[in-house]
Amino acid sequence: DMTQVYNFSAGPSMLPSLVLKQIQQELLEYGNSKASVMEISHRGADFLELAHKSERDLRDLLSIPDNYKVLFLQGGASAQFSMVPINLLRGKSKASYANTGQWSVKAIAEAKRYCEVSVCTDSSANNFTDIQDFEDWNIDPDAAYLHYTPNETIVGLEFDYIPDVEMPLVADMSSTILSREIDVSKYGVIYAGAQKNIGPSGLTIVIVREDLIGEVIAGQPKLFDYSTYSNNESMFNTPATFPWYAAGRVFEWLKDLGGLSAIQKINHTKAQTLYKAIDNSNFYSNPVSIKYRSWMNVPFLLADDSLNNLFLERSKEAGLLALKGHKSVGGMRASIYNAMPQEGVDALVNFMHDFERDFG
Ligand code: PMP
């Protein structure tokens, strides 16, 4: 057996160890199919059964209303930066975007290829460490939809509320989906790359209200039309079968754990543990407004950044992996998605304490 390590990668990231073991156990022969799940047809009975079960489990976990479709796509969240305007503009020429971080910036840049983008709030002046009060946002009433990023993975800035708007609300939930309870009925579209809280990379989940499907910009690729997938159980062409299967196993794991209300408590405690350690020290710091600190991605700076490399070397030796911060922020970042147990956060906090004592 390997010595215990905890992987703080921002994505692809840690998977639940129980799920990895289960995958290992069933990798060579899936059910009664006499072949690996990677080798069987997506249209065969065995795969269809797991596909249906995974969708039912995801619907249970998020209490997804019946008038929403769940799509299992490829292309990552980045493909949704294009698919959202292609599908949601629906004859309008303008969309509203909240600019709260590096992923918002990317979504906005892509939307500009299709429409006029009205930025309704902009956190760039404070380096994406705070969010303007919602009542002060400037949302253009002519916009076809409002797009925002509930959790900005790089800066660790997370909304603690859902913007309340009449127009369809679109959320890039890549790094927060399934981490806490949410009211899906408040949204027009929710999308997420799988590689943080769902499973391996290669799969993208889209949850879309039915009435928003079917009116796309003319001349765009068929593979960028939500109806291509909603009319074909996400099997118009070959889906990402292995990540889909693994995601299904993660959904089962999460249900066994007690669902989103249970993981929400665990995630809240994990985040509190880490922010408390940061705030109680003069050596570590996090610049994000306390109200909007992310539960999933916790960046922190060392008071002396010439110690960064030593911190990374020593933490790796201690079995704490992938703590290097994003280059645009510097310092460290601990991503503590659903699969990270409290013990992993406790081990990190202990390491940080010892490192500060020895070198701080
Ligand atoms: N949005 C957010 C919030 C992300 O964290 C990421 C990936 N880190 C992306 C979009 C891009 O996702 P993908 O690589 O799946 O296209």
Kindly list the characteristics that best describe this protein:
360 residues, alpha/beta, three-stranded antiparallel sheet, 14 strands, 16% strand, globular, binds 4'-deoxy-4'-aminopyridoxal-5'-phosphate
Task: Walk me through this protein's architecture.
This protein has helices at 17-26, 45-62, 76-88, 102-111, 226-230, 241-257, 259-279, 308-317, 342-359; strands at residues 6-7, 68-73, 94-99, 116-122, 146-148, 151-152, 157-158, 169-172, 189-193, 204-209, 284-285, 297-302, 320-321, 332-335. The two termini are 34 Å apart. Helices cover 34% and strands 16% of the residues. It is of the alpha/beta class. A hairpin with a 4-residue loop joins strand 6 and strand 7 (157-158). The chain has nine helices and 14 strands. A seven-stranded mixed β-sheet has the order 2-10-9-8-5-3-4. A three-stranded antiparallel β-sheet has the order 11-12-14, with helices on one face. 4'-deoxy-4'-aminopyridoxal-5'-phosphate binds at residues 11, 76-78, 103, 149, 153, 172, 174-175, 193.
Sketch the topology as an H/E string, one letter per element: EHHEHEHEEEEEEEHHHEEHEEH
What characterizes the major β-sheet? Answer: 7 strands, mixed
* Rg on CA atoms, Å: 21 Å
Could you give the count of β-strands? 14
Describe the structure concisely.
This protein is an alpha/beta fold and 360 residues long.
Task: Draw up the topology in text.
Layout: E1 6-7, H1 17-26, H2 45-62, E2 68-73, H3 76-88, E3 94-99, H4 102-111, E4 116-122, E5 146-148, E6 151-152, E7 157-158, E8 169-172, E9 189-193, E10 204-209, H5 226-230, H6 241-257, H7 259-279, E11 284-285, E12 297-302, H8 308-317, E13 320-321, E14 332-335, H9 342-359
Parallel strand pairs: 1-13, 3-4, 3-5, 5-8, 8-9
Antiparallel strand pairs: 2-10, 6-7, 9-10, 11-12, 12-14
The protein binds 4'-deoxy-4'-aminopyridoxal-5'-phosphate.
